[in-house]
Write a structure and sequence with these properties.
524 residues, alpha/beta, Phosphoenolpyruvate Carboxykinase, domain 1, Phosphoenolpyruvate Carboxykinase, domain 3, eight-stranded mixed sheet
């Protein structure tokens, strides 16, 4: 077994100093002293990540060794040799030499039986604050397991990798050694890389323990039953799971064990683009908390965040500990899920605002991981672009998607959970013609699904996609439930629907499945 303490001691020995487990006020002060950040009018920490305003998935590598060579989905992951990783690690440690470092010893996994002890070493105070906000702080909320899996993250944002020397693609690299649970992050200031590296390790190891790792948010009903919300960025995952009537388990990363659901994290990393106190009051309030990290959010002259300003990036974020929210689940755990929701923002204007899925259809849509985006809308480009990301998080899934799909199928059948596809995208036409489905309607439909109102309601079967759609729901315009009726040109809808169905079928071919037999759309 690898000795993580030895690696951490070696790094500390070469450092100028090491500040261990500083709390938020100290880290805020140190980030200000180091000119890493500035305070907002409310005391949040505002930072810029410069060239990298999002993850760099093409610069992510997994060490190919005896453990990973036959298990990692190499079509989705680039390989690094053990020798190149050793060279990179030695050079990264050397790059930290003489610097003042910040060490955070944290936990990942609210279930003590499936827990990771994560140590992050970084020369950046604000990155230390970020990960302290995002992971579980020992002694808070959850018990520490008897023997958590050790993880060490070496964070060297100022270090530039050498592709010829380190076997990487550019001078930016995120390298994961799954056998020893070591992560090296170099050449990028984007803090999401730290968070997602922990998730990637969990996604590799959890299935071996019978735990389904999930890129989803989760909250609790009145009887302690969990609801899961899967969805890619921009589909409403964080927004819809933040409900004052339903305590939040977590907003992004979870495990589903034999005992129920548990949060991997101790904080939230919410998108803030167009954030308002009316539509998302809980998240808006969190951005005003002392110690919250605002990433690439533009401040006005009075140091007030302008969430409508996307001049730096549309991927503006807020990182805050979960306990600042008004309604959170005790211990960050929940019972066996009763409801599973797949969220999509369909910019083609084809999918209904809600549809019920059979277990087989649920696995199909889980493996598809569909949403649609509109690229460059600020320059008038209005053509929707389909995005398929297996398991609603392919970049973080080291194993083949069917591994996770088969686990989901077993858990859905064992739990009897109902599964719903909710479209938070467009209706009445695609982007540029139709309009976005209003959030009030989405919340009403979600509530009806969660409280069982739709369980015995009359349904129609969609001829093309095969799922069931409610015919009428109290408080909802019936036309909204049948997208074709919201279009002024029914034939144009038919063409767009066939086009989207063909995209689904073409994407699913990579799984080796017969498109005609798969429980997805059937061209008619």
């Amino acid at each position: 077994m690898f000795d993580h303490n030895s690696l951490r001691t070696t790094i500390a020995a070469g450092a100028g100093s090491v500040s261990s487990n500083d709390i938020a006020p100290i880290l805020v002060a140190r980030s200000l002293q180091g000119n890493e950040s500035e305070l907002t009018a409310d005391g949040a920490v505002s930072v810029r990540t410069r060239a990298f305003t999002g993850r760099s998935p093409k610069d992510k590598f997994i060490v190919r060794d005896a453990l990973t060579t036959d298990s990692v989905w190499w079509d989705n992951s680039d390989a690094m040799s053990p020798a190149d990783f050793e060279t990179l690690l030695a050079d990264a440690v050397a790059a930290l030499g003489g610097l003042d470092l910040f060490r955070q010893d944290l936990l990942a996994g609210a279930d003590p039986r499936h827990q990771y002890s994560v140590t992050v070493l970084t020369p950046s105070a604000w990155h230390a604050l970020f990960i302290r906000n995002l992971l579980i702080r020992p002694g808070e909320m959850v018990a520490t397991g008897a023997n958590p899996t050790a993880v060490t993250i070496v964070h060297v944002p100022h270090f530039r990798a050498d592709p010829a020397r380190h076997g990487c693609r550019t001078d930016t690299v995120i390298a994961l050694d799954m056998s020893r649970n070591i992560v090296i992050i170099a050449g990028t200031l984007y803090a999401g890389e730290i968070k997602k590296s922990v998730f990637s390790l969990f996604n590799f190891h959890a299935p071996r323990q019978g735990v389904l790792p999930m890129h989803c948010s989760s909250n609790l009903g009145k009887q302690g039953e969990a609801a899961l919300f899967f969805g890619l960025s921009g589909t409403g995952k964080t927004t819809l799971s933040n409900d004052p009537e339903r305590p939040l388990i977590g907003d992004d990363e979870h495990g589903w064990s034999a005992d129920g659901v548990f949060n991997l994290e101790g904080g939230c990393y919410a998108k803030t683009i167009k954030l308002s106190d009316i539509a998302e009051p809980e998240i808006f309030a969190a951005t005003k908390c002392f110690g919250t990290v605002l990433e690439n959010v533009v401040l006005d002259d009075a140091k007030v965040p302008d969430f409508d300003d996307v001049s730096l990036t549309e991927n503006t974020r807020a990182a805050y500990p979960i306990h600042v929210l008004p309604a959170i689940a005790k211990g960050s755990v929940g019972g066996t899920p009763k409801t599973v929701v797949f969220l999509t923002a369909d910019a083609f204007g084809v999918l209904p605002p809600i549809a019920r899925l059979t277990p087989d259809q649920a696995v199909y849509h889980f493996l598809s991981g569909y949403t649609a985006k509109v690229a460059g809308t600020e320059r008038g480009i209005t053509e929707p672009q389909a995005t398929f990301s297996a398991c609603f998080g392919a970049p973080f899934m080291p194993l083949h998607p069917t591994v996770y799909g088969e686990m989901l199928a077993k858990k859905l059948r064992a739990s009897g959970a109902s599964t719903w596809l909710i479209n938070t995208g467009w209706t009445g036409g695609g982007y540029g013609v139709g309009k976005r489905i209003d959030i009030a309607s989405t919340r009403r439909l979600l509530s009806a699904a969660l409280n069982g109102e739709l369980d015995n309601m009359a349904m129609r079967t969609d001829e093309l996609f095969g799922f069931e759609v409610p015919i009428a729901v109290t408080g909802i315009n019936p036309k909204l439930l049948t997208p074709r009726q919201t279009w002024t040109d029914g034939e144009a809808y038919d063409r767009q629907a066939l086009h989207l169905a063909s995209l689904f079928r073409a994407n699913f071919e990579k799984f080796g499945a017969n498109a005609d037999a798969a429980p997805g759309p059937h061209l008619i």
